[in-house]
Amino acid sequence: MQNVCFYHHGLEYKLLWVEKRFQNPVIYDKFGHRLLQYIHFTQSPDFPDSIFNNKDGLRCSSFRIKHLVPHAQKKISLSLVKQQYVNQIVVNSDFKKSTFNVIEALPKMANIWYDIFTQLNEKNPRHEPILQKIIELHPQALASEVPVWTTDLNSIQNRTIKPSPYNCMADKQFTGHIDLILYDPEDHSLIVADYKPEDHFLSSLPQVATYGLIMKQVLGCSNIKCVSFSRERAWVYDPEIIRTVVIEYIKSYGDPSLEWRDIVYSL
Questions:
Q1: How far apart are CA 2 and CA 204, in angstroms?
Q2: 20-47: per-residue pLDDT in tens?
Q3: What are phi and psi of 21, to 5 degrees?
Q4: Per 3-state DSSP, what percentage of the chain is helix, strand, and coil (rounded to 5)?
Q5: What whole-number distance in Å separates Cα of residue 238 and Cα of residue 258?
């Protein structure tokens, strides 16, 4: 397993990837070759590391659903699942094996390693060791803590960011890190996954869906799905719902002004 460390906003992010898994012919042909080139680019002098350390820079982790009317979060979450815009997978529930086998392993592994690290350290383990165990042991996990960024035309013209085939163009510049990227052999899709130990998905859905939209543009891959997972369950959705049905729900429950709403249309 290969790794490289970044220090962004004073925090260490360890990009991990298992290069031999990219060599699977199906993965390599569909998006693996491009993703591997992208990962290697993050270690080159042209990687725009400076924007990740801009104290005034916008971070994708701030893309949240908030300021809705009371109880709206729960109502929207339940409705998205009921209307099958989001597929909820509960660990140990009685459901038939399906295309979600790869995804079902995520909450199970998170739960196992949370318990192990808790027993060893006698305190709540951080994100990083759990993600590292998943990338080590999940056979379809390709990379973790993958840095992503967007840029706008002004930044290119002003040479704030060098032109690159890995720049994702948007109306505004922002940065982020994807917890996990995996491959689903059932439908040959790329999975953008984010670990959410708080055990709810809606408030952070814009962040995770935006990561999916960025990967669509950067990798030229249309078959992408997003997964938010806790130690108890996982939620699976098409990143495009952040530009469609989720916006309609937000309008119905207070219609707050949220910065990311305009940005996602530009991706």
A1: 29
A2: 999 999 998 989 999 999 999 999 999 9
A3: -70, -25
A4: 40, 25, 35
A5: 21
Cα angle: 30, vertex 26, 5; to 5 degrees: 70
Q: Three-state SS for 264?
A: helix
Distance of CA 170 to the CA centre of its chain: 17
Reading the block at residue 141, the tokens are 């996990």
Say how far apart CA 8 and CA 11 lie, in whole Å: 5
* Residues 29, 61: Cα–Cα separation, whole Å: 31
Token reading at 152: 């706008």
30 is in which domain, residue-wise?
A: 2-265
Q: pLDDT, tens digit, for every residue of 106-125?
A: 999 999 999 999 988 767 88
pLDDT given for residue 19 in this prediction: 93
Position 148 scores a pLDDT of 97
pLDDT band for 98, please (50, 70, 90 cuts). Answer: very low
- Please list the alpha-helical segments (H only) found in 203-244: 205-219
Query: Closest Cα partner for 196 from 187, 183, 205, 184?
Result: 205
What is the tally of structural domains in the chain? 1
Residue pair 208/192 in contact (Cβ under 8 Å)? The answer is yes
pLDDT in tens, 141-180: 999 999 999 998 888 778 778 889 999 999 999 999 999 9
* Residue 75 backbone phi and psi in degrees, to 5: -65, -45
- Nearest Cα residue to 127 out of 102, 143, 112, 110: 110
What CA–CA distance (Å, rounded) separates 145 from 176?
A: 9
